[in-house]
Amino acid sequence: MAERADIDELIKSVLRGDQRALARAATLIEDQDQSAARLLTHIRAHAGRGLILGITGAPGAGKSTLCDRMISLLRAQGKTVGVLAIDPSSPVTGGAILGDRIRMQQHHADPGVFIRSMATRGIPGGIARATADLATLLDASGRDVVIIETVGIGQTEVEIARLAQVTILVLVPGSGDDVQAMKAGVLEVADILVINKADLPGTDKIERELHSAADARPVLRTVASEGQGIAEVLEAAQSCKPSVHLPAESPARIDHLGIAVRSLEEALKFYQAQLGLQVSSREMVAQEKVNVAMLPVGDPHIELLEPSEPDSVIAKFIAKRGEGLHHIALKVPDLTNLVERLRAAGARILNEPQAGAGGHLYVFVHPASAGGVLLELIQA
Question: Which residue, of 11, 65, 86, 309, has the fewest CB within 10 Å?
């Protein structure tokens, strides 16, 4: 586990776009290091500026060549690029076979390009477990465009549409007979349809098939190996307003469960020794008079709260009710507007937005307004 001061310095370097810092941060995230939670918490606020492109399609369609040519054109436009190339897992080591990185080797020395190969490690859907977090990492580092190239498993490869703002499906002449089958899968979630290797026989046929199924979405021709049609694909991607093909995620999600304990050290004997959970951060929140330990459980956390003063809210809670669940915390996209709406609806807000553990802004909603549970709302 990296030390906290070390992680803070790493965060600063990532936000400057430093290549080595990006590589180290990516490794921490992929390895699910306990310091990765703190890293991601601090960089998420800086993401959302880059264009996230998903490139999907069957093996042999020329996705990697298309990506390579897109990188070259984007760099010629002065844009910085991050690439996540999802490769099949090695049956021996479980790691990525690294085929995509080899094909993009010409960009290796370019500081404006960061390429990371990722192993699927058995995860279905054409992406790896940490793909979303690494896309956030590259976006937060200031990359203008982040390209996610999926492993290429065929028509069921729809998870990319949940991560990318624009999804590009790459097909080749001769796959027209598969278009009908794709209607129940990847064809439905693609924003742009690209016929690569369009110099081969059968291009007209598959183009007709795609136009009949495209619902006014762009159908473009490329010969990626010759650099033909790449500019048109990028122009379509940069101007595309992505359709909503998959169910939208809830605007709020569970961030953590707050548990009041008399002693952090005693509680951690159970959570660490018995459950195997690891502490991602510890700190004292002065205004709440509480010591805090955060333990990731997947994306959400368990927040252990120990009173630092006998007159703190947590101390009074324990004195009245004993140790136990103190509150539920939800992360929301726009805390200020939500607080205004809740107040207008008559909800009891217990404090003005202020910084808490980890530096996030939060408010508490009285249990009388939240079905009997103290609810913490956190700015995402």
Answer: 309
User: If you ran DSSP here, which 8-state letter would residue 146 be given?
Assistant: E
How do 166-171 and 290-296 pair as beta strands? unpaired
| Residue 380: band (very low, low, confident or very high) from pLDDT cuts 50, 70, 90 | confident
Please determine, looking at this structure, whether the domain spanning 253-379 carries the CATH number 3.10.180.10: yes
* Inter-CA distances, 283 with 48, 177, 198, 291, Å: 28, 60, 59, 6
Question: Can 47-239 and 253-379 be said to share one CATH topology?
Answer: no
Listing from the earlier edge strand, what are the strands of the sheet with 81-87?
113-119, 81-87, 145-149, 51-57, 166-171, 192-195, 219-221
Q: Examine the pLDDT at 350 and tell me if it is beyond 50.
A: yes
What is the average pLDDT across 107-116?
A: 87
State how far the alpha carbon of 118 is from the alpha carbons of 109, 125, 139, 305, in Å.
19, 14, 17, 37
Cα distance between residue 3 and residue 14, in whole Å: 16
Buried b (16+ CB within 10 A) or exposed e, 239-257: ebebbeeeeeeeeeeebbb
Q: What is the mean pLDDT of residues 143-164?
A: 75
289 CA to centre of own chain: 33
Nearest Cα neighbor of 362 from 348, 346, 379, 349 is: 379
Amino acid at 77: Q
Residue from 305, 298, 239, 231 nearest 268 by CA? 305
Residue type, 66: L
Which is it for the CA torsion 3, 6, 10, 11, positive or negative?
positive
CB 161 within 8 A of CB 192: no
Task: Return the pLDDT at 176.
Answer: 53
Share of the chain above pLDDT 70, in %: 82
pLDDT for the residue numbered 245: 44
Q: Where are the domains positioned within the chain?
A: 47-239, 253-379
Which CATH architecture describes the domain 47-239?
3-Layer(aba) Sandwich (3.40)
Residue-wise pLDDT for 18-35, tens only, equals 999 999 999 998 888 878
Over residues 155-164, the mean pLDDT reads 67
